[in-house]
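Researcher: Here's my situation. A collaborator sent me these components and asked whether they could plausibly form a single complex. I don't have experimental data yet, so a predicted model of the whole assembly would be a useful starting point for our discussion.
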Amino acid sequence: MSAVNGIAQRLPYQTNSTLRQQINAGDVQYEDLHLSHMSQMVRSGFFQKLDMAIVEVCAVTEEGYLIPTTSLGNTTAFVDCADRIIVEVNTTQPKALKGFHDVYDVQPVPHRDVIPIVHPDDRVGVPYIVCDPKKIVAIVPCDIPDKPAKLAPPDAEFEAMSAHLIRFLHEEVAAGRLPKHLLPLQSGVGSVANAVIQGLCRSDFEHLTVYTEVIQEGIFDLFDAGKLDFASGTSMTLSEKGLQRFYDRIDEYRKKIIFRPLEISNSPGVIRRLGVIAMNTALEFDIYGNVNSTHVLGTKIMNGIGGSGDFARNAYLTFFFTKSIAKNGDISSIVPMCSHIDHTEHDVDVFVTEQGLADVRGLCPKERALKIINQCAHPDYRPMLSDYFQRAMGTTKHANTPHILSEALSWHQRFAETKTMRV
Amino acid sequence: MSAVNGIAQRLPYQTNSTLRQQINAGDVQYEDLHLSHMSQMVRSGFFQKLDMAIVEVCAVTEEGYLIPTTSLGNTTAFVDCADRIIVEVNTTQPKALKGFHDVYDVQPVPHRDVIPIVHPDDRVGVPYIVCDPKKIVAIVPCDIPDKPAKLAPPDAEFEAMSAHLIRFLHEEVAAGRLPKHLLPLQSGVGSVANAVIQGLCRSDFEHLTVYTEVIQEGIFDLFDAGKLDFASGTSMTLSEKGLQRFYDRIDEYRKKIIFRPLEISNSPGVIRRLGVIAMNTALEFDIYGNVNSTHVLGTKIMNGIGGSGDFARNAYLTFFFTKSIAKNGDISSIVPMCSHIDHTEHDVDVFVTEQGLADVRGLCPKERALKIINQCAHPDYRPMLSDYFQRAMGTTKHANTPHILSEALSWHQRFAETKTMRV
């Protein structure tokens, strides 16, 4: 669609490189939404009337119910709200996906009831989408398989981050602040988050559960290592090899995996209730604990916030991970001030890079700065960050959040001026 | 306490001017938390063991139950977690407060059940705090009354904001995006938020409900105008006159008001479920829709984020209000880039100043900028903001979020250099 300039407006998330270029050239309007908001905004009519929805399924039952594929997402809301529906039966997706889904419709306000999930493996709905047959204007076959996910190969930095996480979780259990089998884990999309959760295979933790948005490769590694009891998500992104592993033992995995509508997988209430441990990836974070997860140099969007805000904001314990440097060391991922903020200083408990882990719970901004600089920043950048912080303390006479406004964004500025941005 | 330098660390919120100076001089460590996080963090031991809690009540029953005053807040969590408790019986608070409270304890993870509130007036707990009598080391009397709230008198700008809001709400009802009696209203602390909700007295709306954190003067005006059926909050801040009105008809108000623990009043799940309309105040917001509600010139803290994030993030419809200029016009409250961000571009639906209202639902950052500049900024600052935006478009070749990093904070910078900050 994007390759033929067929998209005028896109929301709520994207990961395609062609589309990214079009958005950053002003050719496509992109609204980057918290994913848990999307269905509600569609249902409430905030985006005007929905004319047409194209819905991917693996099968249509004799009763006319739709069986989704490995991506449930906002399909239910689109089916409920669109005037006309084109059903695309993807023949590359096995019919054995029947039984993986748990579709519970969140009622419209002001008549919403509780979403009664109290454990990640609670089934509260039906394993199909009910669709008014009158709305279906076409059922078409499709034989295009899912694009396999490409993940960066494991490296020493990923392993270091994972080791920091495991050590910290053990300390929390020992201190009585986390139960022995931890709490339901959420893990963001991409190589860093995947490597971190995959790393738990090398830990002593057992009987883990996952309550997440996207089920990635690492979660299957946890299953196969006998560490994981159950995983709940809204969709799945796997490599070709990972997909084969899934298909080979699909009947076994059906007992251990639920796909839920996005408004349930990312529900603020369910996340808070379950006490999820949220683990997401930052592009950069600043010395006071603000996180940029979307905009390179504050201007060009990378992918989008996705569900990271839904989880980070409502979790029991919120982690952000990033390598301490990027572009072969030309950029520090820890900066004086983020050039764009998606998760605020109020939202994050623990920061992790390959250098170390900064637990900032209960700390004021100045204490956070010292900890983040000393424990997360790359040694090459620590002196510059400390220098900025100390001079900002002097300039503002120890204000709550010391900054030198004329310098706060200078690290990005310098890079924007001297390097060509390739995003 | 702050006047005698008796506070080393403060959290999760503050409004005292002495304490504010101490925080901004680096003498007090302040952690500015989302209020819904506080009880959970106390209960989970994130702040270490709680030695002692001083708890204000209006009465202790024969059974040893504690009847809180007009501020329930996090008292339940403190009582549950502290080793020793000093109970302070405030004799200026009437015993007739008995029956206003609804104490429902959120269980610790991993055994949390649903909080079964589906209407603002649902009572789900008990009207007192259960406290282990063995923990109580002293019961002391106290005759210091609540400090009356000081609110700015109504003015033309407040009235204009309120009029914009009422017109918009009518349009939403007409378009079928809001029910006739709206949805439960939340309104932040302070003069602006109070004036806005008070303004609804002059609207045609009836049978309104409130699901908020702090019950202010304007909510009683709504009751007395016959517009409001019910209000749920965690505490109350009133003027001397307002307090007298409350006391005079306390038996009547008891049927219409519930005080809940903060973890319930600000519960992300309950807020999302009820579909709250969140109305909070910004210090400044930027052309792309990020909000600063805590830090003057990015460095000195004003009060804190309080519950604004709990509501803004999880509401059905999220508003931020501010006057378009401050300091007699020396400062524009709409800026190229916020100097501190508490609510991100992903969190807000509608911006309101006395100039007008910008509904940014479904808009990409560049569309948002045009709307916010043209409809919310003061006419004196519109040309400068448009000029910045247009040049940023050129510099970044229409990137998703155009910025000129060397200028983005220059408005604050100029002010920080030329004026003495009095915060």
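Model: Some features of this prediction you could bring to your collaborator: The longest helix of chain B spans residues 156-174. Residues 1 and 318 of chain B are 36 Å apart (CA to CA).
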